[in-house]
Amino acid sequence: MYANIDLGFRLRQENDTGYDPPEELIYNAEIGYSLTDKFLLALKLEGIHGDDRRITNIAPTVLIGLNQNLSLETSMRMAVSGRKSFAGNMWAIGISYQK
Asked: Looking at 51-89, which runs of residues are DSSP E strands?
C-alpha cells in the first residue's frame, strides 16, 4: 500500500502579447494498493485552482504488470467539480517500459 501528495504553485508572468495569466495552485493526492505483484489499484484526486479556473478530478486507476519490464495502466478521470473543464469523463491508457 502507498500514499502520495504533490502540491505546486504555478507562478505565471505576462507574455509578449500582454496577456497576464493568473497564478494557480496544483495538487495531486494518490493512494494505491497492490493486490498481487502484477495488479495495482489506485485512486487519484487532482486539481488546479486559480482565479479563472477551478477543476477537481477523481481518477480510479488500474495498473497491470504484463511482464518484468512492461506495464499497462488505465484510468477514468471524472470531474468532481470545475469551471472551464472538459465535459464528460476522460479515459487514459498508457504503456510503460522499465529497463
From this structure: 54-65, 70-83
35: its cell numbers: 493486490
DSSP 18: S
Q: What is the pLDDT of residues 3-35, one digit of tens each?
A: 999 999 999 888 889 888 889 999 999 999 999
Residue type (1 letter), 3? A
CA distance 63 to 68: 13
Q: Report the alpha-carbon distance of residue 45 to residue 99 in Å, rounded.
A: 29
Best CA proximity match to 59, nearest among 74, 38, 39: 74
pTM of the model: 0.77
Distance, CA of 32 to CA of 45 (rounded, Å): 12
Tell me the CA distances in angstroms from 70 to 25, 64, 86, one per residue in order: 33, 9, 31
DSSP single-letter state for residue 84: S
Say if residues 56 and 45 touch (Cβ distance below 8 Å).
Answer: yes
